[in-house]
Amino acid sequence: METTDLLTIGEVAQRSGYPPSALRYYEREGLLRTTRTSGGQRRYERSVLRRLAFIRAARTIGVGLDEVREGLDELPDGRTPTKADWTRLSRSWRGRLDEQIQALVALRDGLDSCIGCGCLSLQRCRLYNPEDRVAELGPGARLLPPMLRRSPAEGV
Amino acid sequence: METTDLLTIGEVAQRSGYPPSALRYYEREGLLRTTRTSGGQRRYERSVLRRLAFIRAARTIGVGLDEVREGLDELPDGRTPTKADWTRLSRSWRGRLDEQIQALVALRDGLDSCIGCGCLSLQRCRLYNPEDRVAELGPGARLLPPMLRRSPAEGV
DNA sequence: GTGCGACTTGAAGTCAGCTTCAGGTCAAGG
DNA sequence: CCTTGACCTGAAGCTGACTTCAAGTCGCAC
After folding, report:
1. Which of B34, B46, B56, B57 stands the most exposed, by the fewest C-beta atoms within 10 Å?
2. Distance (Å) of CA A84 to CA A71, A80, A81
3. What are B22-70's pLDDT values in tens digits?
4. What is the tens place of the pLDDT at every residue in A24-83?
């Protein structure tokens, strides 16, 4: 048995849950690095799985790929990231997550007041006339992504 | 002075905050209806402003246009929507908003445990191995949209 | 050495929710 | 009547995060 411990893209796909196309995409985007066989096929180090798990966690809380890359780039190049490295990254997202929760709670409170008032007063309704930064982000602004929208044949 | 009380697209744009392009888009998508002048220009009834405010509120809490249309379609065709109509719609979103907040709080708690453990144990980390439905929604799943991502020259 | 599944690439497609553009028309004040 | 700014249309473009496709190559078991 070989102890080289390198994984094919298919294996990484299966273990990480990311489809091969996404793995290739992440590589193109500089989020992953791979070695290649003499024939040009990708071989992944086992550590890519943790990296992918981290990417998934980041994506889940709404961090864009650009920013994920920035974060990962700050991990020291050669050495295995330490606990402190991951912790630093995680902590920076914790604050953001808090803000996002705050924003949603504020929206909910606004919605509550709207339910009470029937939203017939555009002047007074906080949801309709929010003065916070959400409103400043333009017409298309949305607080939550498609994935949390009602999915077909799941909601009821 | 005319008391026809119809608004041009420019006026609606200014009062609603939506650019004309968005208003035309919403009309194409069936979220708004307009009358036309003999020459083909749009004229909006004043009620479109409330409708737009409602659309904005919905969009803000993450409701997609398809679903906004569904909701608006349930408003009785001819008559001005009553307080009860708006309330029903708002209330249906309230539950969703709660769920979304719950999901984020769960993530935050997971992140907290990750900060504690340094996320070196992929088996144990809730964020890295979430067993809830967030994980099932696929690799690209994200809980929060671009608008809440760090904006340039604002964060620090 | 051969068969075949897993792999490779670049290019193009997808989705939502608009925006932008080109080329032309309308409406209203003077 | 004329000018000028607001308006019209359809088509194409944009962003982010991928997916899909076509056509070809690799690697490993038999």
Report:
1. B46
2. 13, 11, 8
3. 999 999 999 999 999 999 999 999 989 888 988 887 887 778 899 899 8
4. 999 999 999 999 999 999 999 998 988 898 888 788 777 889 989 988 888 776 566 677
Q: What is the three-class DSSP state of A114?
A: helix
Cα distances (Å, whole numbers) of residue A94 to A73, A76, A151, B128: 19, 22, 28, 14
* Closest Cβ–Cβ partner in B19, B64, B125 for A149: B64
Neighbours of A18 (CB within 10 A): 22
CA-nearest of B66, B149, B42 to A64 is B149
Query: Is B100:A144 a contact under the CB 8 Å cutoff?
Result: yes
Higher confidence at residue B71 or residue A80?
A: B71
Is the C-beta atom of B35 closer than 7 angstroms to strand C? no
In SS3 terms, A52-68 reads as: HHHHHHHHHCCCCHHHH
- Cβ contacts from A onto B, under 8 A: 201
Q: How many CB atoms lie within 10 A of CB A6?
A: 16
Q: Cβ B67–A149 below 8 Å, yes or no?
A: yes
Tell me the whole-structure pTM to 2 decimals.
0.74
Sign (positive or negative) of CA dihedral A69, A74, A75, A78: positive
The torsion angles phi and psi of B137, rounded to 5 degrees, stand at: -85, 5
Backbone angles phi, psi at B43, to 5 degrees: -130, 130
B139/A59 Cβ within 8 A: yes
Chain C positions with a protein C-beta closer than 7 Å = 6-9, 16-21, 25-27
